[in-house]
């Protein structure tokens, strides 16, 4: 099988876009082979738009990914001649997403889904915040050393959340403003210590802003391979809009043989 692909680097969350059509049932296997032995953390498949967007991208596990959305938005902006704003369709989101792109600066900012639910939890005696972003949920835990053992203890908390395509534990070092994301996508059979995580960054901002006054709450979270800015706008104690932004680098298209 010959595939045309494009490697994207949104703040270290290495994403490979497959530019050729691949049947949905084959995507998990194709993604696994493309990721094997590489620095690629996730794979997205470029598809024809169905909701009037400039383009459509579906992740291998059908999940929503904020960093992949930012990168795909930049790709579409390039294809449209360098526009500064583009509407894209992405898996896990039921309406087109706005992406603001600055090609000269090499940055992209994506609108993000608002939380469906935010609640306090406890794992192994450690308080945490569950942020359900619809399709993907993250448990944010502060000042706990990142470990697979803690993730496995926390994992049952996700099992009762409906319509979940992916979930992760976001280990937040509140003093450094740093997060370490461990994210699982069951349909793609992947569990990855991500270089950066857009939805995880938003989840951290949501968790930290729960007692913040109305208005914008903006934080830049340092991550293992980059930094992502996350913002939540609060009104009457509720989240009313959210976005993430940061650097994106796109490589030239390439051909791979599977």
Notes on the structure:
This protein has an 8-stranded mixed barrel with strand order 1-2-3-4-5-6-7-16. α2 links the parallel β4 (56-59) and β5. It contains 4 helices and 17 strands. It is globular and about 50 Å long. By secondary structure, the chain is an alpha+beta fold. The protein has helices spanning 27-35, 66-79, 148-154, 198-208; strands spanning 2-10, 15-18, 42-47, 56-59, 85-90, 97-102, 107-111, 117-123, 126-132, 136-142, 166-173, 178-185, 190-193, 215-223, 226-235, 238-250, 254-257.
Largest sheet: 8 strands, mixed, barrel
Number of helices: 4
- What integer value in Å does the Rg equal? 17 Å
As residue ranges, the low-confidence spans are none
* SS-derived structural category: alpha+beta
pLDDT averaged residue by residue = 96
Distance between the termini: 5 Å
User: What overall geometry do the principal axes of the alpha carbons give?
Assistant: globular
Q: What's the helix-strand series?
A: EEHEEHEEEEEEHEEEHEEEE
- Determine the strand fraction and express it as a percent band: over 45%
Helix content: 10-25%
Strand arrangement, largest sheet? 1-2-3-4-5-6-7-16
- In total, how many beta strands? 17
Tell me briefly what this model is:
The protein has 258 residues and is α+β, with helices and mostly antiparallel strands. Helices cover 16% and strands 45% of the residues.
């Amino acid at each position: 099988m010959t595939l045309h692909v494009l490697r994207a680097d949104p703040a270290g969350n290495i994403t490979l876009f497959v530019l050729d059509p691949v049947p949905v049932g084959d995507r998990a296997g194709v993604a696994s082979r493309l990721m094997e032995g590489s620095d690629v953390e996730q794979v997205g498949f470029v598809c024809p738009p169905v909701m009037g967007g400039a383009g459509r991208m579906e992740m291998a596990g059908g999940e929503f990914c904020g960093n992949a959305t930012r990168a795909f938005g930049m790709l579409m902006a390039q294809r449209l001649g360098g526009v500064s704003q583009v509407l894209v369709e992405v898996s896990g989101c039921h309406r087109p997403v706005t992406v603001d792109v600055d090609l000269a600066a090499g940055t992209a900012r994506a609108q993000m889904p608002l939380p469906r639910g935010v609640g306090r939890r406890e794992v192994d005696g450690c308080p945490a915040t569950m942020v359900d972003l619809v399709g993907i949920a993250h448990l944010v835990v502060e000042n706990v050393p990142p470990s697979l053992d803690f993730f496995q203890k926390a994992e049952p908390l996700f099992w009762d959340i409906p319509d979940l395509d992916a979930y992760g534990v976001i280990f937040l070092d509140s003093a450094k403003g740093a997060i370490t994301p461990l994210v699982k996508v069951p349909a793609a059979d992947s569990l990855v210590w991500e270089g950066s995580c857009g939805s995880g960054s938003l989840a951290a901002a949501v968790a930290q802003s729960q007692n913040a006054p109305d208005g914008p709450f903006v934080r830049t979270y340092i991550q293992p391979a980059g930094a992502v800015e996350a913002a939540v706008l609060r009104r009457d104690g509720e989240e009313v809009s959210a976005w993430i932004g940061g650097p994106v680098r796109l490589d030239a298209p390439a051909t791979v043989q599977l």
